Request: fold
Amino acid sequence: MLLNKIFYTSLFFSVTCCSAVAQDTTDIMRLLENEVADRTDYTTATFKTTRLVNGHTVENVGKGALDVKISHRFGKVNGGGYELFGLDNASMRMGFEYGITNTLMAGVGRSTFQKTYDAFFKLKVLRQSKGNRNMPVTLSYVPTIALKTLKFEDETRKNYFTSRLFFTHQLIIGRKFSEGTSLQLMPTYTHRNLVQLASDPNDLLAIGIGGRQKISKRVSLNFEYYYQLPDYKMLNTTNSLSVGFDIETGGHVFQLHFTNSQAMSERGFVTETTGEWSKGDIFFGFNISRVFTIGKKH
Reply:
């Protein structure tokens, strides 16, 4: 009789405890499902760095980070052995890009090509994401101002400081399709305060397309092309086409590429490219990127 009481009492407590555990597990699972449903997962590393080849990507440097970039473009490879296939000549740009917030960065640079200074900011308006907030693309806006400081060609006429200024506005629409594949579109508008020929327009329009395909964990193949709208382009210019590789090594990103553009600011490579791939007007070049943390890590 005593054994029966002990047995039924133990069975009662066991059933009660199991029911309580099952209820707790159900509540926990429901909380986790709600948390997942309320979470937004943002896409990261659409591109390896803030530059694709010459132009910008949708990527920003993080808040408090300083990205130091050194870029070189050697001479034309069709210069032959006498010019060591372009390596005897080079133009370079040194730039500094700083993350003000995680969605806003600013940068300055100076190019030896036409002694050009440039400054810009990049605002990430939309971020590709899924989950509670589903956004198929990342959208960035990049306005740039450039100052060409070459001596005026005609010193006898009255020249104005504003004649040296160029303004570019660019939207960058990017999407990461998979871990290794990313594409972006770059509608671009450039205004020139002074043009050399009366037939040249002050306002120029182009549409760029670029992308990358990873071929290993640390190496990717990149390309970039800018098509100038025929009614909004300068005479005797061609469309900029560039291909190259990104190589990541620790804190550095090396970018090796071939391009028909020698300029390294938007007003140059988008609107003033004259090289033709079919004639060997190709410049070998590279970008080196090194990021330093200035503020607190985030």
Summary: The CA atoms of residues 155 and 232 lie 29 Å apart. The domain at 43-293 is CATH 2.40.160.40 (Porin).
